[in-house]
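Ticket #4471: structure export looks truncated?
Reporter: QA, pipeline team
Priority: medium

Steps to reproduce: submit the single chain below to the structure queue and open the exported record.
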Amino acid sequence: MKFLHLADLHLGKRVNGFSMLEDQAHILRQILAILDDEQPDGVLIAGDVYDKSVPSVEAVGLLDGFLTELRARGVPVLLISGNHDSPERLAFGGRVMDSCGIHISPVYDGALAPVTLQDAFGPVHVWLLPFVKPAHVRRWFPDADIESYTDAVAEAVAHMDIDTAARNVLVTGGTRSGSEELSVGGTDNVDSGVFAPFDYVALGHLHGAQHIGRETIRYAGSPLKYSFSEARQHKSVTVVTLGEKGDVQVRTVALTPLRELREIRGSYDELTARSFYEHTTYRSDYLHLILTDEQDVFDAMSRLRTIYPYLMTLDYDNARTRAAGGMSVPAETERHTPLELFEALYQRQNHRPMSEVQRAYIAQLMEQIMEVQG
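Actual output as written to the record:
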């Protein structure tokens, strides 16, 4: 049985003020073309379908069109809500859509039943576990010791009636760490050992395609680059083929965006020289330009946008910015966790590092804030 594994569509997202709707429509058409070539038996969408819990009309229309195209091809869709989605809104009409082959994870209520598909080797049970926080799971199992994300997912899995002799696929949100929402202190990472009962685990939330623990526990990654910290990533669709029990093959199919997202460094004169850009795609790419001039260039953003209309951000890397700590380049901050950034600020202001007690206290506060913000 063959699946396409997608995640982190973030429909309706804006990046540095630029709407990504046109880019998203382009990449969804490309995914449909891959689907036509691969002829899978199902499509797994592992959360963060929308970028906001209350998506725009345009984003809803984009998803509606994509699901309509998938169903026109007769392909079952198995979809969960991620931490960016409203599980209640995404699940609306889910019981009606089940009969059409579009299976959406309901709001977690402590009980899960699989969607079962059949092939020549027998049943494949697909379990749809939406993104859950410890508090979500603790509500249904108040006597359980649930403190971490690992505890929460382990408890949810423990209450699934899994036939381990059959083939089982789990679709779920992974961790909150990565470029999308950086880890606070490690407590939100889910141990891969929790996923032992499953032949394949389709994860969402980290934007870079990768596996954890074993090749068959995998993040599909986002289909588009949504941050300059992702500029060097190669986006793809994951193709998963399940043979008989124990035989799982995983490969990727590359995606090509409508516009590339790049970081380019150089002096103003270098970047504005026709010889620099005329034989490249830079003028149609999303750009983060880093000027190396020692003196600020007057009205640089407006002047550069006459050449590079999709210029998103502009920064300087010179003696002045390096002396100030190099914090003018957003991509550098995106490579650090909020806790690391807070520690750096504390040390700069107090001329000494945080103690372990202070670090633990701040990490706990950040966890509590993220719980409230949801």
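Status: closed, not a bug. The export was complete when the record was re-opened. Leaving a note from the reviewer for reference: The chain is about 30% helix and 25% strand.
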